[in-house]
Structure formats: C-alpha cells, structure tokens
C-alpha cells in the first residue's frame, strides 16, 4: 500500500487515541445532596458547592451536583429549579413522596452512571470546602473516603452523648465495620457505587451498607459546623427509631439477648419454685405471698413482651422485604447535560 494513502488513516488513528486519552484524563464526580424541606438552606449552600466545583474543574475533575428532593412540603423544589436554571452543572431528582433520607440517598447514588459520588447533607453542617481533600484521597486509590467528626458544633450535650453511645454500641454488636462518629459525609468510588447498587434491602441503614461493601477506606477528620438555616428533621424519637433500624439491620444480638434473658429468667423461676416447695414442706403453706406472686408474674410478663417485641421487629423487616416493592418512585427529573449522571429513571 502507498505510504501516502496510509498517512490519513494513521492520523485518524492517532487522533482517536488522543481523544480517548483526553476522555480518560477527565474524572467525573457527582455531588449528591438529599434535601427535605430545605428551601432556606439550599440558596446558602449552593454557592459554596459551586465554588468548590470551580476548584475541582481547574484540577481536571468534571464535577456536577445532583439534588434529590425527598418529597418536600415547602418550596424546596421551586428553589432547586431556580438553582438548576442558573447553573448548567446541576441535575434534579424529585421523589413522589417523602421516603426518608436513606432512600433519598439511594435514589441519588443510583443515578451516578460514571465516576465517583460525594455525599453531602443539605443543612451545610458538613463543609463542602473539604471536598478537594476527599478527592485527593480518592485519587490515591481509596474507594470509601469518609469524614470523621472531631466535634459537633451547635448540637446539644444530650444529642452528642447519645450519638457517641450509639456508635460504640453498634460497633460491638455488628460484625460489619461502622466507623465511630462517621455519618454520610463521604466519597465513594465507581466500584464502591457498583457494589452498593446490588444491596436493595428496604430497611436501609446506609452507614452499615457503606461498611458492608468494604474495599479501601480512609477517614478525613473534620469539625462539623452549625446548621446554616432551618431546623433539623431528626428529633430524638426519629433518632431512636433510626438506631433500632441500624442495630436490627446488621446484628442479631437483640434476638440472642432475648434468648439469654429467657434462659436466666427460667432458671431463676425454677430456683424460686424449688424455694417455695421447700418452704411449704418445712413450714407449711399459709396462703401468703400475694405481693411476691404478683411481682413474679409481672416480671415474667414484661420479659415475655420484650422478647416478643424483639422478634416482631425482625419479623416486620422480613414482611417488608417479602413484598418486594420499589425502593422509591420519581415524580420529576431534570438531568444536567453531558456524561456522568444516569438516566434518572422513574422508579427503582
């Protein structure tokens, strides 16, 4: 073949290699923000995220942000539409109702088709300015770069204490590693996201799921800030139920504890029965001891009800899983242009 004829083909081949090299050089990062009734906080938070995305873009990252409206009852969706209209790097996803933060995070992470995902709370307590540090550790080869709280500014002593106790308890009860004082503020690599998508359980304790998938993990210590606007949606009752979900999702220790309590109670009742029989044989039975009898009955009844409640918690989760309903439904979506975000499907 004439070398002059081969030259155009060679140039086209080299041009294709150059394009592929350029595409590989661009690393995609999607910042996922789940919001519920955060119309006041989002206009304050987004400029900070936009400034961080500018920094990332200058460093060779292709950033975008995906806001997930978890069925808000205020003007959150309207605020997000305004943000998306002003910033082409913004994608929106609106769920058909309030499914809860864990499901909203799942919905957002499901849409990240390529690159890594950075999870950020909409209340501004986790500073977006630290995202470049997370990206730096990700580029070192870590799949789960999570923020560990050194302090929790603006939170009551009771909330800090209960959170401290919860993380230590679940570390002891669960075989799955759950880092202490670590929330959802983290960066997940592409393969970590692919593994996470395989876990489709209904009662989702995301901190446990992040630990379950494993891979290379590293912590980024930081000081948690005050909420920038609005009120927290997690009261003590909701946090209590959240703790129960966490324990029952990753540990059968409560069932085992109920078994041990039942065994010890049965042994105690048997010993007490021997005592009553021996006392009646030696001193006779004068039909006394009504208070003691009532105390024993109430104690045993309480133990049985607690055990039944623990069993009911696990049976309820089996019941929810057996129905195989979608995790969430999407009401509206606004995809950002370009690669990096998924098709924003209507349901999952």
TrEMBL record:
<dbReference type="InterPro" id="IPR001173">
    <property type="entry name" value="Glyco_trans_2-like"/>
</dbReference>
<feature type="domain" description="Glycosyltransferase 2-like">
    <location>
        <begin position="30"/>
        <end position="194"/>
    </location>
</feature>
<dbReference type="GO" id="GO:0005886">
    <property type="term" value="C:plasma membrane"/>
</dbReference>
<keyword id="KW-0808">Transferase</keyword>
<feature type="transmembrane region" description="Helical">
    <location>
        <begin position="290"/>
        <end position="315"/>
    </location>
</feature>
<keyword id="KW-1133">Transmembrane helix</keyword>
<comment type="similarity">
    <text>Belongs to the glycosyltransferase 2 family. GtrB subfamily.</text>
</comment>
<keyword id="KW-1003">Cell membrane</keyword>
<dbReference type="InterPro" id="IPR050256">
    <property type="entry name" value="Glycosyltransferase_2"/>
</dbReference>
<keyword id="KW-0328">Glycosyltransferase</keyword>
<dbReference type="GO" id="GO:0016757">
    <property type="term" value="F:glycosyltransferase activity"/>
</dbReference>
<keyword id="KW-0812">Transmembrane</keyword>
<protein>
    <submittedName>
        <fullName>Glycosyl transferase family 2</fullName>
    </submittedName>
</protein>
<keyword id="KW-0472">Membrane</keyword>
<dbReference type="InterPro" id="IPR029044">
    <property type="entry name" value="Nucleotide-diphossugar_trans"/>
</dbReference>
<feature type="transmembrane region" description="Helical">
    <location>
        <begin position="257"/>
        <end position="278"/>
    </location>
</feature>
<dbReference type="Pfam" id="PF00535">
    <property type="entry name" value="Glycos_transf_2"/>
</dbReference>
